[in-house]
Amino acid sequence: MENPYLPYPVCIDNIVTETDDRSLKTFRLVFINPEDRDNFVYAPGQFAELSVPGKGEIPIGIASSPTEEGFVSFTVNRVGLVSTFLHNMKEGDIIGIRGPLGNSYPWDRMEGKNVVIIGGGFAFTTLRSSIVFMIDPKNRSRFNNIRVVYGARNPGMLLYRDELMAWEKRDDIEMHITVDGTDDPDWKYNVGFVPSVTEEKITSADNAIAIVCGPPIMIKFTQPVLEKLGFSPENIILSLEMRMKCGIGMCGRCNIGDKYVCKDGPVFSQAEMKRLPPEY
Amino acid sequence: MGDKIFTKQGWVESLRGLAGDYMVFVPVKEGDMYAFRHLDNDTKVAFDDYHNTRMSPKSIVYPQSERMFEYSLDKQDPDCNILKEVPKTFAPQAIVGIRPCDAHAFQISKRNFDTPEYRDPWWVQRYEATTLIGLGCNSPRSTCFCTAMGGGPFDEEGLDVLMFDMGETYLVRALTDKGEAFLGKLNGGRSADKTDREAALRLSDHVRDGMPDVVPVDPIRNKEIKDIFDASFWDDVAFACLNCGTCTFLCPACWCFDVQDEVYGREGDRIRNWDSCMFPLFTLHGSGHNPRAKKFQRVRQRFMHKFKYYVDKFDDGFQCTGCGRCVQFCPVNIDIRDVLRLMSDEPPVRLSA
Amino acid sequence: MIELTEKIRDIAKKLLKDGTVDVFIGYKKGSVPMMNEPVLIRNPDEADLLYWDSNCGLNLCNYLTGRTDRIGILATGCNSRSIVTHIIENQIRRDQLYIVGIPCTGMIDHRAVNRAVGHREITDITESDITFTVTGKGFQETFNKADYLQGNCKVCRHRNPVEYDEMIGEPVEEQKGIEPYSDVKNIEKMSCDDKNAFFRRLIDKCIRCYACRNACPLCYCPTCFVDESRPQWVGKSIDPTDTMTFHLLRAFHCAGRCTDCGACERVCPMGISMRQFTRKLNRDAEELFSWQAGLSLTERPPLDTYRSDDYNDFIK
Fold it and tell me: Is the ipTM of this complex over 0.95?
């Protein structure tokens, strides 16, 4: 019988330290068995359980895009037992992954729409996946204009800096990078919190869907801005974080209302969230 | 196959004859309580005197601790860090004397463990290997409320065979193919006649009619989640709660679990253990944030999950069978029936008295 | 008992009305016999919920931890000692409390009573001064309360509250001729292997629900060592070694602090004789340090005291 708890073995192919404080690293993982790779078919917004034998599993959003073939990558914040251990692992080490898990951003609904991506801090991972996916030549025509607001505490805490700079130069995506503050005299992007930059730069909600990922405080202050801009609750899309174990809707701990965040989520619209108890 | 009649002694002897075909579990008395244990030649079977087991028989399908995977952490080992399934066999087993409420609980848990998208391999395989031979309840306790939860003292749902305790004999009725197969392997007994069947019906009707209908549940179904969630009574309900795991561990229909890695030298196991929404660790994020950091939130979660979230999710029944274990054994007497009355906007009996 | 219940209600009403306290913690009658429920009373109208009889075996001190309001609390001998322990361990301030002392003649061992009626279901219990009567379908039996006391109440030497602001009724006579540690002495006589086997048998039913720990007023650590994940001291499965580690370490953590209130044993859903873990340590505290927990607000417990002139070499 198929065992949904059994991780696929993967090899750590590459590790990139993302932030100046070294608390975030991106792990590029390569499947050891080709058939596992072929089975791992995902859409941006989904997550996987990274399995570190002897330590446990952690649910992490997939940071790579399905358009990037041959590997999957995850950006991991060093907070707990598993992530700390993972941060000390080396290229060539073996871990496991289970997935892809959960729903994804509503790609069917987003076709033909303007897409607004709003991210803060280290929650930019599945948003990076989404951007890479949308600007891929095969997909770009499926979406209208793409606008991105991404903020971090300071320039050193921005993820994927090289890619951000590259996207800045493109004309098929509108980037608004911001930091809460900086003492870098050469900083040529925005300074300010994500909600206010959103209010200033995203001037229209016409035919648009917004995807919002970030720390709770950012989400709290961005929601009213989006509502003011005219986004309906159905068109504000959020991704929730919860403590998880099984990732397949069985162990019960990520239960909020009648939903399991791991299986029914992690992506919910603002309209769905309003029905649910605020226990996240 | 028609109903059969066994003398009480003949029934147990017949069960012993199944040793080669099934692992048979029966209720036995251990100190002050009862538990399901393997039937062997000198087992003293407690069909006659037991009301129900302290721990529900859920552990026979879903053990409190279960090794899921094993692995080597030895870098010299070519399979280092690769998880391997722990070999298990799922030989046919039978729980004989299970109460209808506890059988009902397996139907409830099945919705969780056997889904269209994922099937829990251990729960499903063990459940499928299990035949449930229920013993109808001739004298339910005052803490029982199975009829309010859609079951009953002689309810057939989830059972493969139902036994009626007729005093000197059991009338035994197969309800499913699995049940037919089980009874087909049993020696002895005689066919039940019309008089036997009528007596069994009278018995079950009589007991069912005597069940208290004390727990209103329909109003809960029709309310919005947030109306109950934001109600003012949760603080009072939770005050005495110790946040221990008694209610959830004794509950036949609670299924939540934790997954842990345990390492011994260079070998490791991934183990799953029953967990409880009463424990603060259940929802504690790695960051230190806890969405249910307060006691009343965890107490509320247990009741909301059973009587609202489950109902909304599956649109059928409750995640409770009315077995009454939590009522009897909650160390601080938080009575789920009282909480149901509050959730239904009806004053609890004790407060209105 | 009815008389005491009335007095408790009157005092609670008065305290809440005149603003001496914000809340009052007592017991209400259980929905099942012999299981009264701790209750928090916020206004005088609710005070008639309060109830008192010999089924109030939970330690109310457990409900004080972390409270910042002014609290009226009912306290028997052992409960008052736990409150004293709470105060000297800085878990609550004395001036937050209005302690309503209640002399105690012991709590009924619900397991022993169920055993005595052959586990037929008891649906009602009534009590007089020295007897109680249980009723169920087709039976009624009367017992002497003294024969059915909880194990800790049988050997109790402090039935009267040691610290209170007001006392309900007259003090009761303390039990005479108590041999408090005969059970411990029997275990002490065992060989190492027998002791090991004794404690393993004791916990073989443990389901790690932590009712014992959570009912204990001493167990107020924000994160218990069994719940720590970094480092993880104890495995979380029902492996007997892990289970034993939990029980033994918890007991040692209670050494010199335990008042033998019996809450741990009373709440265990599996009927484990939990007090066997703490009794030896209580005896040691008494024999080595002449210490019984919770009798004094001014003396420090032996295990949180350090003297540079201690006569023991190992500690210097």
Answer: no
